[in-house]
Amino acid sequence: MATLKIAIEEYSNATNFKLYDQTIWGGFDNTDVSYVNLTVTYQGTDYTYKLWDDGDGTDETGMDGTFVNLFGDDVASYIDIAPSDLLSGVGVALDAVRFPDGYYQIKLNVTHAVEGAMVITNYEGFLAEAYCKSAELPFLLDIRDFDHYESRLQRMIISMLDGAVRAAELGRYTDFDAILDKINAFYSARDLTDLW
Amino acid sequence: MVWTQATYDALVAKTKSLVVDLSVLLVRDCTLGQDTTINLDLLEYSLNIFNGLKYGVLIYQDEHYDYLHEQVDIIYGKCRKYLTV
Question: How far does the CA of residue A43 sit from the closest CA of chain B (Å)?
Answer without folding.
Answer: 21
